[in-house]
Amino acid sequence: MKKTVSERADILPVLGEVFRAHGYEGATLALISEATGLGKGSLYHFFPGGKAQMAGEVLAEIDAWFEVNIFAPLRSAEDPARAIAAMLKGTEEYFRSGRRVCLVGVFALGAARDSFAAQVNDYFARWGDALALLLGRSGLSSSVARRRSEDAMLSIQGALVLARARDDAKIFSRAMAELKLRLLAE
Amino acid sequence: MKKTVSERADILPVLGEVFRAHGYEGATLALISEATGLGKGSLYHFFPGGKAQMAGEVLAEIDAWFEVNIFAPLRSAEDPARAIAAMLKGTEEYFRSGRRVCLVGVFALGAARDSFAAQVNDYFARWGDALALLLGRSGLSSSVARRRSEDAMLSIQGALVLARARDDAKIFSRAMAELKLRLLAE
DNA sequence: GACTCTCTGTACTGATCGGTACAATCTCCG
DNA sequence: CGGAGATTGTACCGATCAGTACAGAGAGTC
Questions:
Q1: Is residue A23 in some structural domain?
Q2: Exposed, middle or buried, B62 (CB in 10 Å: 0-12/13-18/19+)?
Q3: Which chain A residues in 44-63 sit with Cβ < 7 A of strand D?
């Protein structure tokens, strides 16, 4: 048997795309095996906990990416307008301008939410907190900052749903552009 | 064997809840059978096309409900403010103030979108058109009306995702209240 | 070259998948 | 009351599910 020396770091993104495309229940081991090029032996070697562990680690990896590239910059930003623009640019790139779907959102809607409730909740909570903090620092009252940050979270998710529903990625880009104005208004 | 005289009309809503809760791929026939109280014999008697037909008819039923209770009133409304308030009230009730999820949105995000693309797209297209028409009649330019109606579609979907992700139905109610102001602004 | 330890493919498990077949029972209509 | 057609439960189908067992191959170490 050959040894393909697959790294965990190479596998997780592929796993992520499978879960994105088929959801938790739809992502069968056969699909995963095909997408990763790994047999069950390897899969269960890396993830003894099976599908649940795979999904959990994928979520954690996504969370870590957002923590580094989106949340942390938001928290430590000097210029609010610049920070918001950067956040929007980052999310637009991450979601491939609406052609890619949010795995956390997919899990949130499905039955998988129960199993991953903490991770799902945390992701949005930390994003929302970081954004609200920034908006607060830009002069908005904390209640307005809260409401606007919640509006941003929900607009991003909704734009992804609608873009995919109508098969029109431009919906997402339009929503991000409008969100930028709305976040900084007044 | 008894005859429970189950009406198609009684079955569809139950089917809808099963699909809502588990998604298309997650809704197994065993789950459906249990929820409806119907054996496979009855299920396949009513829906010879199996799961796909069930899902298709559920979508059609939902579409019909919205057509009658939301879209049509929007198109024929006299008073825009009143019509929007009615739409928001209707959707808030339908989605049980954020505790219920949108089946069309669930399908849109999953792999089932491909099979039901036309129905999924149509639902949002007709809602968006009806709302844009109304907003246009209220004096907004057609491009602004379009953008705002798109914003409404996406806010509803996003609010449902976020409410479920954070397990906080109030997010949905807040979003609907804010949407009302935003739709009628200026 | 032998000993590990890591990685991998394959064969297998029992359970469950969606779907079919069919006979038994019911309701309705005359 | 006696068919006819609608409705039902159950047994069954092959395929596929998630997961296990395990032997063999690779690489590193001595």
A1: no
A2: buried
A3: 44, 48, 50-52
